[in-house]
Amino acid sequence: MRYHVLGPVGVHRDGGGVPLGGPKPRTVLAALLLNAGRVVSERRLVAMVWGDDPPPSVRGQLHTHVSTLRKLLGADVIARRPPGYLIAVQPGELDLDAADDALARARADAARGRARDAAPGLRAALALWTGPVLGGVTEPLLAHEGPALRERRLVVLEELFEAELDAGHHAGILGELLEAAREHPFRERLHAQSMLALHRCGRTAEALEMYASAHDRLIAELGVEPGRLLREAQGRILRGDEPPAGPDVPRQLPADLATFVGRAAELSDLDGLRGPGARVAAIVGTAGVGKTSLAVRWAHRARAEFPDGQLYVNLRGFEPAGTAVDPADAVRGLLDALAVPAERIPTGLEERAGLYRSLLADRRMLVVLDNARDCDQVRPLLPGTGGCLALVTSRADLTGLVAEGAAPLRLELLSDGEAREMLARRLGADRVAAEPGAVDEIVAASARLPLALAIVAARAATHPTFPLAAIAGELRELDDFDGVRTVFASSYRMLGPDTARVFRLLGLHPGPDVSAATVASVAGIPVRAARRAVAELTRAHLLAEPSPGRYTSHDLLRGYAAELAERDEPAAERQAALRRTLDHYLHTAWAADRLLIPQRDPIELAPAHPGVTPEELPDQRRALAWFQAEHRNLAALIQRVPAGQDTHTWQLAWTLATFFDRQGHWQDYVAAHRVALDATRRLGDTRGQAHTHRNLGRAFGRLARFDEAQVHLERALDRYRACGDTVGQAHAHGNLSWVLEQRGRYADALTHAGRALDLYRAAGDKAMQANALNTVGWQHALLGDHDAALAHCEQALALLQSLGDRFGEAVTWDSVGYVHQHRGDHARAADAYRRAVDMFHEVADRLNEARTLTRLGDTQGEAGQPDGARETWRRALEILDDLGHPSADDVRARLRPTPVAAA
User: Fold this and answer.
1) C or N terminus of the chain, fewer CB within 10 Å?
2) pLDDT of 125 over the 70 cut
3) Helix (H, G, I), strand (E, B) or coil at 52
4) What's residue 713's pLDDT?
C-alpha cells in the first residue's frame, strides 16, 4: 500500500490507484491517515467531514463510508476502536511518514556539517508533496489540517535552501529560491536566504534592494518592521561578514514557471536533440505565444546534462524603442558570465566571438538566446562545439539558421484544453469547472495566448470571489479590441488611477527594466507610492519582477503603455516625465561616479526637477553594482535624449566614463561620447567640449587607436586653455604623456608630463602633483636618466605619504624598483618592489600586485637567485591565472626549464 495526503488524497496498491469515490470517503480516509496509529472518534470524523451542520443521518453515512473503505483496503486495516476508528499503516506506506523520515535523516546530516549530503535528502522529502495538500477532501478538514501541512512543506523548503547555501550551491538554486520568495512575500526566511544567494552570486545591489522591498511591503501591508532574520542578512552583507563567493559555474536560467502547462509534444521534440554533435534549436512563433516559457521549462528539465553551466541572454529583438542588444554587447555579457576579466576581453565582435567559442570548446553548456531579432544577431553567439546546445527563440522564422542545420520548432497557440488547464492551474480546478461557459469566453477573448491568459488569470486570482462570468463580461465590453489587446485593456481599466498613470508613464522609459526608485522619479511620486504601484502592476501581470527590485514587462505591454501615454497624457506631462527620468539617472550616476573615484574633478549639475528621487548608494560596491544593473538603460538613454536636453547628454556620458573604463566597455565609451560631443557643439559649451574630447581621447587610447586619441586630447587641451581651466589642461597633458609613451615617443611624453606637473603645482593640487611627479620620474627612467627618475619618484613618495595615498605610494615604489633594477642595484630594487607588492595587496589591486611580483622575480633572477625568482613568479602566475589575464603566459614561459645546448 501507498497512502497519499501530501497532494491529492489517494491510495495505490501494486502501482495501481484504488478508487475511493467522492470527497466524503476521501475525507474519512485522510482524517484517519493524519492520525495513523491513533483512535479518531466518530465525533471528530463527523466534524472533519461535514463541519458544524451535519445531516440527521450522519452516523449512518459515516458507517457506510468506513465500511466501503474497509472493503477497498482490507478489514484489518481500519479497525473499530471505541469511541471511533483506527487505521494501521506500515512503515513507509504513508507519504507524510516518509517525508518525516527523510527530513530526520537530512537534519542529522546537516547537524554533522554534511550539507552536501543533507540537500539531496531534503529534496527527496520535498518531492513527496505532489500538489495542493489534501486534494479532493471536504472544506472542514482542509481548513483544519491544510495550513499545518502547507507550513511543514515550507519548513522543508527553507531547510533545503539552507543546506544548498551551506554546500555552496547558491548559483544553482537562485532561480527556484527567488520564485519561492515571490510566492511567499511575507516569508522572511526565504527572503533572507535569497538575499544571501544573490550576494554570493555577486549581485549585492539586488540583495540589498530585496531587503528594501521587503521592508516597505511589511510596513505598508502589515504595519511591522522586518524581523531578525532579514535584519541579520542585511547586516552581514553591509558589514562584509558575508563575502561574495568566487566564480562559480554560471546558472543564468530564469526561474521556471510553476503554472506552465501543456506543450508535451514540443518538449518531446526538444528532448530529441539530446544527441552528439553541435546543436541549435530555433523556437519560433507569434508574440505572447509562450516561446520563452517553453525554452526555460525545457532548459530546467535538461540542465543536468550541461554540468558546465547554463547561459541566458535576452536579445530584446522586438523592443518598442528599438533597443535590441548589439551582438558584440551580447557576447561581452556571456564572457562576463564566464568570469573573463575585462582587460582580457577583445573590442571587436569577431575577436570576442572567437574567445567565447574557445572557452566553450571543451565544455558542456546550454545557451538560451531569447527574443532574437534575426539570424545575424544570433550567429556570433552560437557555440561551435558538439558538447553545447543553443536554444534560440524568436518571432522571426530564422530560416537562415534552419538552412545551416538548426532544428526548427514552430510554437502554435495553446489548444482549448491547454488554455483551460492553464487557468485551472492558476485559479483552481473547482473554480474553472464551475463556470465552463465563462471559461470558454475567456479562452476565446484571449486568443489562446499564454500572455493574455496569464493577465486574465491574475485579474481573477486577485478577486477570488468574482464569478468568472463577470470577468468574461468585462472582456465582451471591449470588443473594439482584438485578442491580446482586449485583455490588456481589461486589466488596465481595473487599475487604480495612480497606478494606471504609472503604467502609462513607464511606456516612455527607453530601457529594458526599472527599479522602484526609477519608477518614483518617472512618475514624480515618493518611492513608497512607487512600490505600491509596481506591486499592483505585478499582481495584475502587467509587470514582472525577474530579479528582486528590477521590474520589466513584455514588449507588447510596453508598446501598449506607450500608446496610452501618447493618447492620454498631455505633452507637457510627457516632457516632464522624460526630464525627471533624465535627472534621475544623471544625479544617481554622478553620485555613483564620485564613490568610484573621489579624486576626480566633478562637473556641476543643475538641480534635479521636483519629484526626482535619485538612488541612495552608500558605498563604492553599491555604486558599481548600480552601474552594472543600469548599464543598458544608460547606454540606450544617451542615444535617445530628446531635443533640447543636450546638457543631460554630455553630462550623462561624463558620469559613465569611469565605469566604462574600469569595466572595459570601450565601444560604449566611444559611442556615448561621440553623441555627447555633438551635444556640446550644439550648446556651444567649450568646457563640455573639453571634457568630452578628453574622454574620447582616453577611450581611443584604450582601443590602441593612438592617432585618434592624440587628436582628441590636443583638442581638449585647446578648449581647456580657452576657458582658463588649469587643472583640465594638466589632465590633458597627463593623458597625452601616456599616449605618447605607448607610441614609444618618450621624450615628447616627458615634455607633457612636465607641463602637467607645473600646472598641478600652480593649481595647488597636491594629490595630482604627486601623481605627476611619479609620471615624470617614470619617463626619465624610460629615457635612461636614472638619477632624475629617482629624484622625482622620491619627491612623489614624500608627498604621497603625507597624504596617506597608499595606492599612489604603491605605484611609485614600483617605479623606484624599476629604476634600481636598471641601475643594477638588485637589493634596493627588490626592497622597493616588495614594498609595492605589500601595498598593492593592501588595497586589493591584484593585477598590479602580479605585475610587480613579475618584475621582482626578474630582479631576483638577474641577481643570481633562481630559486627565489621561481617562487616569486609562481606567486604572480597564481594571481594572473586566477584573473584569467593574458600576461599569465609570459610568466609561465619564465618558469619553463631553460633548454640545455647540445655538446
Assistant:
1) C
2) yes
3) coil
4) 97
In whole angstroms, what is the distance from residue 901 CA to residue 899 CA?
A: 6
pLDDT at position 479, please? 59
Question: Residue 169 above 90 pLDDT?
Answer: no
Query: CA dist 887 to 618, 854, 857, 877, 882, Å?
Result: 35, 10, 15, 9, 12
82: preceding bond cis by omega (within 30 degrees): no
Query: Which strand (E) or helix (H) includes residue 13?
Result: strand 10-13
If we measure between CA atoms, which residue out of 531, 537, 626, 518 comes closest to residue 580? 518
Phi and psi at 135, nearest 5°, equal: -65, 135
Residue 483: domain span: 416-493
pLDDT at position 898, please? 62
Distances (CA, A) of 274 to 226, 250, 271, 872: 47, 21, 6, 47
| CA–CA distance, 392 with 409 (Å, rounded to integer) | 10
Q: Is the pLDDT of residue 598 over 90?
A: no
> Cell 607641463 sits at which residue?
755
Contact status, residue 895 vs residue 877, Cβ threshold 8 Å: yes
Residue 400's CATH number: 3.40.50.300
Q: Are strands 550-552 and 78-81 parallel, antiparallel or unpaired?
A: unpaired
Give the mean pLDDT of 635-645. 85
Question: Any idea of the CA torsion for 703, 708, 713, 714, to the nearest 10 degrees?
Answer: 160
- Taking CA atoms, 485 is separated from 453, 492, 498, in Å, by 12, 10, 21
Give CA angle at 563 (647, 456), nearest 5°. 130
CA distance linking residue 249 with residue 366, whole number of Å: 12
For 552-563, what is the mean pLDDT?
87
Q: Supply the pLDDT for residue 225.
A: 85
Is residue 657 within 8 Å of residue 668, measured between CB atoms?
A: no
Q: What is the CATH number of the domain that holds 878?
A: 1.25.40.10
Indicate if 862 and 798 belong to the same structural domain. yes
Per the prediction, the chain carries an average pLDDT of 88
| Whether residue 715 sits in one domain with residue 692 | yes
Q: Which three cell numbers stand for residue 354?
A: 572567437
The answer, as to whether pTM is greater than 0.85, is no
- Give the three cell numbers for residue 711: 587628436
Mean pLDDT, rounded, for 187-200: 90
- Mean pLDDT calculated for residue range 361-384: 92
Sheet of 78-81, strands arranged across: 40-41, 84-87, 78-81
pLDDT of 480 higher than 70: no
Mapping DSSP to helix (H, G, I), strand (E, B) and coil, where does residue 234 land? helix
Q: Which residue has the cell 634596493?
A: 828
- Scored b (16 or more CB within 10 A) or e, 589-600 reads bbbbbbbbeeee
Mean pLDDT of 526-551: 86
Distance CA 262, CA 281 (A): 19
CB of 452 closer than 8 Å to CB of 484: yes
| pLDDT score recorded for residue 900 | 46
Q: Are residues 269 and 399 in the same domain?
A: yes
- φ, ψ dihedrals at 346, nearest 5°: -65, 165
Q: How many domains does the chain have?
A: 3
Nearest CA-CA partner of 193 in 159, 149, 151 = 159
Average of per-residue pLDDT across 185-214: 87
